[in-house]
Every structure is written in C-alpha cells, then in structure tokens.
Amino acid sequence: MSEAPKDLKYTRSHEWVRTEDDGTVTVGITDHAQELLGDLVFVEAPEAGSSLEAGAACATVESVKAASDIYAPIGGEVTETNAELEDSPEKVNESPFEDGWLFRMKPADAGELDGLMDADAYAAHVEAES
C-alpha cells in the first residue's frame, strides 16, 4: 500500500494538501499517483498569482508512461511554485510529500478543506479503485 500521511488531506483525483502555519496550503500528488505514473520527466505547475477554481485542471505532470492533469483541490490564489521541479521532476517520485510538492496557494475559502478526505478515507478510495 502506498504511503498516505495522516496530517494531510486528499482528493479523489490523488492530490494531497497540507495546511501550513501561515494559512496557506501546499499541494502535490500522492505516493499512489506517482507510483501509477512512473518516472516523471516534466512538471508544469500553475504560475504564481494564478487564481484557481476547486476541481479545475491547473498543472500537468508527464512521465515515461503518460501525461496527467493535476486538479486544484480547493479554490484560491497560487503563491509559489516548486521551481526545483523544472530541472528535477524526479523529486516528485523520490519524495512526493516533502521535496516533490507542486505549488502553494492561499485558500479563497479555508472551509473547502473540510470537503477533502482524510488519510483513512483516501486509503479506502485507493483500495476501491484497485
């Protein structure tokens, strides 16, 4: 079974969200998602300053197997992208929850986080998909 840290929230489309101390959130793809994709060769994150709508495609990751859209887990404004992924997309494979984060954003409505899954619900969702 893939790793799913208990302190994160998850989406049905395999993104994770971590709430930071300053109220922003960090977004990435789950361990399960990176395992399915295989070795990543390209990551295109949304630009800082972009306004995202919950559920809208906002980024792309490409692996040796396929390209996949990444969806905004909540609505808000992108405050930062992980520039290291431009030259080292493999960081997503190596460390999906730490060094391989995709972008940070300021939530438009922090209450939207309550609609995301916890680790146990996400693990059940992954199991149901298998």
Structural overview:
- The chain is α+β, with helices and mostly antiparallel strands and 130 residues long.
- The chain has four helices and nine strands; from the N terminus they run βββαβββββααβα.
- The longest helix has 11 residues, at 119-129.
- The termini are close together.
How are the SSEs ordered, and which strands pair?
Elements: E1 9-10, E2 15-19, E3 25-29, H1 31-37, E4 40-44, E5 51-52, E6 57-63, E7 67-71, E8 76-81, H2 84-87, H3 91-94, E9 103-107, H4 119-129
Antiparallel strand pairs: 1-2, 2-3, 3-9, 4-6, 5-8, 6-7, 8-9
Radius of gyration: 13 Å
* First and last CA, distance: 11 Å
- Beta-strand content: 25-35%
Strand order of the largest sheet: 1-2-3-9-8-5
Secondary structure class reads alpha+beta
Keywords:
130 residues; globular; six-stranded antiparallel beta sheet; 32% strand; 9 strands; alpha+beta
Structure in a nutshell:
Helix content is 20%, strand content 32%.
